[in-house]
Amino acid sequence: MAERTAALPKIRIRGLTKSFGSNHVLRGLDLDIADAESVVVIGGSGTGKSVLIKTITGLMDADSGSVEIDGTDVLSLPPSERRTMMSRFGLLFQSGALFDSLTVLDNVAFGLVEAQGIPRREAHERAVDFMAQVGLEPDVGAMYPGEISTGMRKRAALARTIATRPEVVFFDEPTTGLDPIMGDIIDELIVKCVEEFKITALTITHDMDSARRIGNRIAMLYEGKIIWQGPTTEIDTSGNPYVHQFINGLEEGPIELVARQA
Amino acid sequence: MNFLAAIGRTFLGFLAATGRLAVFTGITIGHCVRPPIYWRLLGRQLVDIGYYSLPVVGLTTLFSGMVLALQSYTGFSRFNAESAIATVVVLSMTRELGPVLAGLMVAGRIGASMAAEIGTMRVTEQVDALTTLSTSPYKYLVVPRVLAGIISLPFLVLIGDVIGVFGGYLVGVNKLGFNAGSYLKSTFDFLETQDVVSGLVKAAVFGFLIALMGCYHGYHSGRGAQGVGRATTNAVVSASILILISNYLITELFFAR
């Protein structure tokens, strides 16, 4: 039994499908993510990367398939148990999705107060610590999201995501909209958080520099399925023409051919 | 054939929208009667809906009461019934004009703002962020607004009734030459508890409908600025129509013989 538990992936996705009318976005996707592993899913725009994260986190209902966390299929759980399971997840949104009406400090402390029931004052003290970990000065806490830069918003959102100490964190295009320097900083912060808190991470991005920095393993999503996956160090020698074309940003190749045929 | 298909599609769309609204309403009511309630947010909404709507409701009812007295005088003087003006003003204000005018004004002011705020939160993924932080968007966003609507509107209408009657009094005494004492006596002589209570019940129902429509359309807002704009318009229009329909139904319930 102990052996089985050790071998059990933290996240096990099997046959996940999701369609919007006649648009079949996910077509039986399979993916395993080990405990404390950082997997990056790459793929072009509109290939269903965000849909993948939203179906796993329950923000969207999957049409079929299973998503097991520690062996429990979250998609078949009743809503109350599913909510409890989801409290073990964190999600860093592409836009940050900070609450406009709350200060940065209240945003970072939000999950501590609302989800974990920690008294407001104590939650604020902890929030200041998490802000420091992502390089935000305490005085930023009094500001509203509309008053700070995109990079600072991303940092604040990251602090809010890790503040509840989730076991699994999903990063949705973490470097989109950031300049290369800020992108590097956010990537480093993500790596630091994943290593420090032993988080299992699933990141989706089409930024290959970011993917190489964040991921232990990379998987490529194409036409609703994972068409290749392997260690980050092996992606350049994958031998897969789709991967080769995507990571090198080539105009010619099977991806363009299929798009043209479509 | 295309024409029939279009009718069918429209009808199915209507049924789907009705179903969505029914589910939304059911979930909202379920959350309203189950703890926890976010008291801080409820307080903030009470201030937003109740306190900040006072000027607009006050002005509307004041001038409506004044106009009502003036119009009634010109009409009633044709058959020597001027003495009934005070009674007409107070009954009209408490039973109909107070709740309906306050409801429509608040629908325009608050319904639109709720739809815009929640719609923007939907578009910018803040509603999804609430879910990922183990917080029900219904509990956090919808329930405080709906409860505040139900609580605020009766108070607004009560104050609006008083201001409206005062408007009639101002015109009656200062412009039409009524005796102040006899005007007030006529005002209260024929006023019954049921007149005021029916208006307050209407107000509570209108408050519920305004907040529900604002939240529903915001929650189901489409993508982008256009989606939020459409949600705002739909919230105000649907709340206004529901106010007028429910006004008739409640009136029938209270006063039909």
Task: Provide structural commentary.
The complex is a heterodimer of chains A (262) and B (257). Chain A is of the alpha/beta class. Chain A has 10 helices and 10 strands. In chain A, the strands form 2 sheets. In chain A, strands 6-7-8-3-9-10 form a 6-stranded mixed sheet, with helices on both faces. Chain A is globular and about 55 Å long. Mean pLDDT of chain A is 86; it is low at 1-5. With 257 residues, chain B is mostly helical. Chain B has one domain (38-255). Helix content of chain B is 86%, strand content 0%. Chain B has 9 helices and no strands. Chain B has helices at residues 2-32, 39-51, 54-76, 85-123, 126-132, 137-175, 180-189, 193-219, 224-255. In chain B, α4 runs antiparallel to α6. The longest helix of chain B is centred in the middle third of the chain and has 39 residues, at 85-123. The model of chain B has no long low-confidence stretch (mean pLDDT 91). The interface between A and B is medium-sized, with 23 and 13 residues.
What topology emerges from the helices and strands here?
The complex is a heterodimer of chains A (262) and B (257).
Chain A lengths: L1 H6 L3 E10 L2 E11 L4 E5 L6 H8 L7 E6 L2 E2 L5 H8 L2 E4 L11 H11 L5 H14 L16 H14 L4 E5 L7 H17 L3 E6 L2 H7 L2 E6 L2 E7 L9 H8 L5 H8 L1
Parallel strand pairs in A: 3-8, 3-9, 6-7, 7-8
Antiparallel strand pairs in A: 1-2, 1-4, 4-5, 9-10
Helix pairs in contact in A: 4-5, 4-6, 5-6, 6-7
Chain B lengths: L1 H31 L6 H13 L2 H23 L8 H39 L2 H7 L4 H39 L4 H10 L3 H27 L4 H32 L2
Helix pairs in contact in B: 1-6, 2-6, 3-4, 3-6, 4-6, 4-7, 4-8, 4-9, 6-7, 6-8, 8-9
Can you give me a brief rundown of this structure?
Chain A is an alpha/beta fold. Chain A is built from 10 helices and 10 strands. In chain A, a hairpin with a 2-residue loop joins strand 1 and strand 2 (23-33).
